[in-house]
Structures are given as C-alpha cells and as structure tokens.
C-alpha cells in the first residue's frame, strides 16, 4: 500500500515545483517533505523526482501522479456515498487548456461547475497542440487539445472546431497591403506570434500563399490580450478566433485580411479514463459549453 503522507509530499513537490513551497503547503518542514519522499521512493524501489536542472517527475513519478489524480476522485465518490448529506471538502483539480479557449468560454463554463462540486481549479495554459503532454505526464486530470488520439487510459470527446482568421489593424492594412492582399505583400509584412509553439501563422502562410513564416519578421507576445493589442497597434498581422475579435471588428480596430481563408483547429476534451460522477459531470459541462461556443 502506498503511504498517503509520502504521496501527498510527492504530489505537492511536483505541483509547486519546489520542496520549500511543498512544505509550506503541507504545513510541515522542508526536511520532513524530503524524508517522506525518500521513504516513498524506497518503498516503491523507484526514483520519483529529478531534482536538477528543474524538478520534474520521472517515468515512475508520472505513473504515480496519474494514480494520485484517480485516487482523489475515488475518495471523493466514496465520501459522498458514505455521507451524502455531509458537505464535501474542497478538492483541487488540474486542467490544461489553450489560451484562446481560456480567454473566451472556458471560465464561464467552469465557474458554476466548480461551485456546485466544491472544486478548486488549477489551470495550466499551453498551446492546443501541447496540452496533451501535461495529461500524459499525469500533471493534469484533463485537457483541451487539438490532438484527437487519446493517450492510453484516457478518453477523448470532440468539442467542435475553431476557425482562425487572419487579422490586422486598418493602419497596418494600408501600410503593407495597399497594393493588394497577395503573396508579395504577405512576404514583406511582420507577423505576431503567441509563443514559439504557435504555428497558426505558419500554417496560414504555407497553405494559402506558399510562404515560409520563418522568413518574416516576427513579434512574440505570449498573452492573449497583449497579442490582440499588439496587432491593434499596427505592429503586425496574426491569427485569431472570430469570437475573440467581434467587438474589435465592429469598432473598426481590426479587419479581416482574408475573410474566406481560415485555419480550422478541431478541439477535444481528453481526461483519464476512470469514470466517477465528478469526471462524468466535468466532461458533460465542458462538452455542452464548447458546442454552444463553437456553433
């Protein structure tokens, strides 16, 4: 049987990326955290954490993280069955999402669910092509991803798709596209990228204009609000979901450069395959709200 104190110490270290912060979260000393982890590793016969250059779970540690995620749900379900009238303790759940979903519909979808189920939310944000990696390593219970194929032991539900439009400010349009919106003008225009994993602009230029975006001048703005603001200021063109920019289009702060040429990104909700009332209700909530948002 896995020692619960050791398991709590291990998950706290990974969640906080620090022995010191893990100790503070558990209200024990740092040496006690180290001792509990050592005893857990000895009992399992496996190294669970790599300490340098930064803290991360080993392959055995990732398996244990998945176990801990599932155990939390099973314990919650058991407590409810044993005492259905007793108020449940708050439960922390980690979910990974892409920035665009976070900035549009996800928070309004999760707020009532978290309140009803007494859940403390720990959101991790990454590119939609990368969030499934956090699920695979056991760092999150579920993720919103553009990858359809679920990892082993996980389920996958379609959430519809997002159509991304190429956008720019009116001043940028006049400066770089006065001669027409074509391959030559796009080749000279600076673009705005969310981060180094953002490939939407690259896909757009390659698909519609046979251009390599790496040859363009590029701004990196890793903030959803900052990304759009930088484009509004005329610093470059970029890609955005129409739901994010409706008011900016109406106010003429932004324009669609190629209204009929979009990049469609399908999204999926993936979560660990263990079925509990909590996991099923979470999947239903996300699926229903996503379908409304992506109509």
Secondary-structure map with pairings?
Layout: H1 4-16, H2 19-26, H3 30-44, E1 49-50, E2 56-57, H4 59-82, E3 91-97, H5 99-117, E4 119-125, H6 131-136, E5 142-145, E6 154-168, H7 170-176, H8 183-188, E7 191-193, H9 200-209, E8 218-220, H10 224-232, E9 238-241, H11 242-250, E10 255-256, E11 263-272, H12 277-293
Parallel strand pairs: 3-4, 3-5, 7-8
Antiparallel strand pairs: 1-2, 5-11, 6-9, 6-10, 6-11
Helix pairs in contact: 1-2, 1-3, 2-3, 5-12
What do these coordinates show?
The protein has 12 helices and 11 strands. It is elongated. The longest helix is centred in the first third of the chain and has 24 residues, at 59-82. It has helices at residues 4-16, 19-26, 30-44, 59-82, 99-117, 131-136, 170-176, 183-188, 200-209, 224-232, 242-250, 277-293; strands at residues 49-50, 56-57, 91-97, 119-125, 142-145, 154-168, 191-193, 218-220, 238-241, 255-256, 263-272. Helix 5 links the parallel strand 3 (91-97) and strand 4 (119-125). Helices cover 48% and strands 20% of the residues. The strands form 3 sheets. Strands 3, 4, 5, 6, 9, 10 and 11 form a 7-stranded mixed beta sheet that branches. A two-stranded antiparallel sheet has the order 1-2. Strands 7-8 form a two-stranded parallel sheet. It has a domain at 162-265: Periplasmic binding protein-like II (D-Maltodextrin-Binding Protein, domain 2, 3-Layer(aba) Sandwich), CATH 3.40.190.10. By secondary structure, the chain is of the alpha/beta class.
């Amino acid at each position: 049987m896995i020692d619960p104190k050791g398991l709590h110490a291990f998950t706290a270290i990974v969640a906080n990326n620090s022995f010191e912060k893990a100790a503070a979260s558990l209200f024990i000393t740092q040496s006690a955290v180290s001792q509990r982890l050592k005893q857990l590793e000895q009992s399992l016969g496996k190294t669970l954490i790599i300490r340098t250059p930064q803290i991360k779970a080993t392959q055995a540690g990732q398996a244990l993280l998945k176990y801990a995620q599932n155990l939390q749900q099973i314990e919650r379900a058991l407590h409810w069955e044993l005492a259905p009238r007793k108020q449940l303790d708050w439960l922390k759940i980690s979910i990974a999402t892409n920035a665009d979903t976070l900035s549009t519909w996800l928070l309004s979808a999760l707020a009532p669910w978290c309140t009803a189920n007494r859940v403390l939310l720990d959101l991790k944000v990454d590119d939609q092509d990368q969030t499934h990696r956090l699920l695979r390593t056991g760092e999150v219970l579920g993720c919103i991803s553009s990858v359809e194929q679920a990892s082993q032991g996980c389920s996958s539900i379609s959430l519809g798709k997002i159509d991304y439009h190429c956008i720019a400010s009116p001043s940028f349009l006049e400066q770089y596209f006065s001669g027409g919106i074509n391959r030559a003008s796009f080749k000279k225009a600076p673009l705005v990228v969310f981060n180094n994993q953002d490939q939407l602009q690259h896909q757009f230029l390659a698909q519609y204009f046979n251009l390599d975006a790496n040859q363009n001048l590029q701004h990196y703005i890793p903030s959803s609000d900052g990304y759009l603001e930088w484009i509004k200021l005329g610093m470059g063109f970029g890609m955005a979901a129409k739901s994010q920019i409706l008011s900016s289009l109406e106010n003429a702060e932004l324009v669609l450069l190629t209204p009929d040429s979009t990049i469609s990104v399908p999204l999926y909700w993936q979560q660990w395959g263990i079925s509990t009332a909590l996991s099923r209700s979470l999947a239903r909530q996300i699926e229903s709200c996503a379908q409304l948002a992506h109509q």
